[in-house]
Write a structure and sequence with these properties.
Elements: E1 2-6, H1 11-23, E2 29-36, H2 45-69, E3 75-82, H3 86-96, E4 101-105, H4 119-127, E5 132-135, E6 146-151, H5 159-167, E7 175-180, H6 186-198, E8 204-208, H7 217-226, E9 229-233, H8 237-244, E10 260-263
Parallel strand pairs: 1-2, 1-4, 2-3, 4-5, 6-7, 6-9, 7-8, 9-10
Antiparallel strand pairs: 5-10
């Protein structure tokens, strides 16, 4: 498995890296640490070179700490330094390297009380077609025993995504709660059966969420007590807008403590 860690060396980014390491501690994983240097346009070349060297030195220190932290011997680490903007840098890396999962912090510490997904995280989720795991500040890995998956039956579910969830041992023992955000129909019944085929070893619960506009902050607080992962399908990003958009989402004023996994085709 190949995992690209999008990191700015902040506490939030470091915590996201540690979460991913713990989540995948029994998997063979190649972690690549991506860090971006954004030089000031008018900075002297000597100053920029000094800053480049400092960042590269920090990257080597971080890699060494990650290697020391990894106890299973199944995790390998490398670095990717770039001066491109985040989305461009991620795309360029993925053009020449296969990536199974992107990992990043959900939102910077200074904005956690005003948004669930930060600007950069939301941009990556909407512009990069790769599975993405976004980890909130200070959230430590715990056994995945209860997963929430909001679902709009108006989109087609990709078989690859369901296989990823159904066949991955990380999710097999978890209770999967599917929030149906569209009215029941003959198509929804077929999709329920389709989902059930891929989760025959998991407990499945389907429930309708008919009136999202009246969904209260109190309900969101209760949700965070019940679940330890939210899964959103890339084609269902409308749900991401409704629930968690960094400007217009319903719960942007209440800090989130649930990791968010976005699955793209």
């Amino acid at each position: 498995m190949n995992v690209l860690l999008l990191s700015d060396f902040s506490e939030v980014a470091i915590n996201a890296t540690h979460y991913a390491m713990d989540l995948l501690q029994y998997e063979e994983v190649n972690f690549t640490l991506l860090n971006i240097y954004d030089p000031k346009p008018d900075a002297p070349e000597a100053e920029m070179e000094q800053e480049r060297n400092a960042i590269k030195s920090i990257m080597q220190e971080r890699l060494q700490k990650l290697r020391e932290r990894s106890s299973s011997g199944m995790q390998k680490f490398s670095e990717y330094y770039t001066e491109d903007p985040l989305v461009k840098a991620t795309r360029k890396y993925m053009e020449v390297n296969h990536v199974d999962l992107l990992v990043m912090g959900a939102v910077g510490k200074e904005f956690r009380h005003s948004t669930i997904l930060g600007k950069h995280t939301y941009e990556i989720i909407t512009k990069i077609k790769c599975n993405i795991l976004a980890i909130p500040e200070d959230v430590q890995f715990d056994l995945l025993d209860s997963i929430l998956m909001p679902l709009d039956y108006g989109i087609s579910l990709h078989n690859q995504n369901l296989q990823f969830l159904g066949n991955n041992r990380l999710f097999q023992k978890a209770k999967l709660n599917v929030w149906e955000m569209t009215p029941e129909s003959s198509e929804s019944k077929l999709i329920r059966a389709y989902i059930s085929q891929h989760f025959n070893e998991s407990e499945l619960i389907f429930s309708q969420l008919k009136d999202i506009e009246n969904f209260q902050k109190l309900t969101w607080i209760e949700v965070q007590k019940k679940f330890n992962l939210i899964i959103i399908h890339g084609k269902n990003l409308k749900i991401c807008d409704q629930l968690m958009h960094n400007e217009h989402g319903l719960f942007t004023s209440h800090p989130n403590r649930i990791p968010i996994l976005v699955l793209h085709d």
